[in-house]
């Protein structure tokens, strides 16, 4: 079975929405050969490609880069699938090590750097790189702003096709016009849909009246329900707060998701985020997070992300878990008398930490720059 057909089978619902025969492009108007292969761009044709294609996904690579070499065959597999969408996404690559002026213009400082250009405007891509997941991730850019779901089975298929990398919002008893503007604004960060028929889903999604907006994080097995008011401010606040899970595991990828969020981050630093003690503490942190949605809660294990953890004065003799409040940039705060969390009644200790922070009983510090 050809690779593209195998990929198609993973996304039956999205492909039903997105895939038909590609539009014919007049050769006299388009200097590029669109055949489902990865386009090779350079300084002579880059700008023309961006203006020619509404959606173009560009790999800025270096020939000597090991990560780039591993990525190349994945892009080769994804390219024909993405080119076959009703709104095609063209896959291209640039030797950024050779065409340094082009790399400088687009602020390339590492390899590979992946960007998707939508009507000429670029967004850096931080999603997964295996071909099937990359296709699933990129189809988000050309999917409807709000999917209209007309049956229980359509809801199930939509959720399955959306995958686990983005939060999913489903409006029950809502007119799509109520969320359409916000769906456009946050399209790159979440899936949005409105269910017209949902006889079986009131039980499965555990809501008891309509209108209701459900936010789910499949990767974290989390769900929340918003019953209004559905004025823009309240609705947007709910959507913004629901873009992240209650407690965010901090790693290189998730750090990028914090860039546009202005909330302070309550960060818990643990020895090993995967052990049983840490898992129990994370459950307690979720309870605190649900009651303090004006803050982001996150956790990191020294074992998993040592360099990052050490930025907050974590040393071999530091008593862990340690809690701080980080501004997402260069400053953070410790709370006087609540430098660490003991094993006895962590919920009360976390509450004391938050009270101390809100009362201003803090010491302001700057993150330690790694040598």
TrEMBL record:
GO biological process terms held by the UniProt record: protein folding; response to endoplasmic reticulum stress
TM regions (residue ranges): none
Family classification: Belongs to the protein disulfide isomerase family.
Keyword line: Disulfide bond, Isomerase, Redox-active center, Signal
Pfam families assigned to the protein according to its UniProt record, in alphabetical order: Thioredoxin (PF00085), Thioredoxin_6 (PF13848)
GO terms for MF: protein disulfide isomerase activity
Cleaved signal peptide residues: 1-27
Record protein name field: Disulfide isomerase-like 5-2
């Amino acid at each position: 079975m050809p690779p593209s057909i195998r990929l198609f089978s993973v996304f039956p619902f999205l492909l039903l929405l997105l895939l038909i025969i590609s539009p014919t492009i007049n050769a006299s108007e388009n200097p590029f050969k669109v055949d489902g292969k990865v386009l090779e761009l350079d300084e002579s044709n880059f700008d023309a490609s961006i203006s020619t294609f509404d959606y173009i996904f560009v790999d800025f690579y270096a020939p000597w880069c090991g990560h780039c070499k591993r990525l190349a065959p994945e892009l080769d597999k994804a390219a024909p699938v993405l080119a076959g969408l009703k709104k095609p996404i063209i896959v291209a690559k640039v030797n950024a090590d050779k065409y340094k002026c082009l790399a400088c213009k687009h602020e390339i400082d590492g390899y590979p750097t992946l960007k998707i250009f939508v009507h000429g405007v670029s967004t850096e891509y931080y999603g997964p790189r295996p071909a099937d997941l990359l296709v699933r991730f990129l189809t988000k850019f050309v999917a409807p702003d709000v999917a209209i779901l007309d049956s229980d089975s359509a809801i199930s298929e939509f959720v399955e096709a959306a995958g686990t990398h983005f939060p999913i919002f489903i409006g029950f008893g809502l007119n799509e016009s109520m969320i359409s503007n916000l769906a456009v604004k946050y399209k790159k960060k979440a899936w949005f849909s409105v269910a017209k028929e949902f006889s079986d889903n009131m039980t499965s999604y555990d809501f008891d009246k309509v209108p209701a907006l459900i936010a789910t994080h499949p990767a974290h097995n989390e769900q929340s329900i918003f019953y209004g008011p559905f004025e823009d401010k309240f609705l947007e606040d709910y959507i913004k707060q629901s873009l992240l899970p209650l407690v965010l595991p901090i790693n290189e990828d998730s750090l990028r998701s914090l860039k546009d969020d202005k909330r302070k981050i309550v960060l818990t630093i643990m020895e090993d985020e995967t052990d049983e003690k840490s898992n129990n503490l994370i459950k307690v942190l979720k309870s605190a997070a649900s009651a303090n949605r004006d803050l982001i809660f996150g956790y990191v294990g020294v074992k998993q992300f040592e360099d990052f953890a050490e930025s907050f004065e974590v040393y071999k003799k530091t008593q862990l878990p340690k809690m701080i409040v980080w501004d997402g940039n260069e400053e953070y705060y410790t709370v006087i008398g609540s430098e660490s969390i003991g094993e006895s009644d962590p919920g009360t200790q976390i509450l004391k930490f938050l009270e101390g922070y809100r009362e201003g009983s803090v010491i302001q510090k700057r993150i330690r720059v790694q040598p």
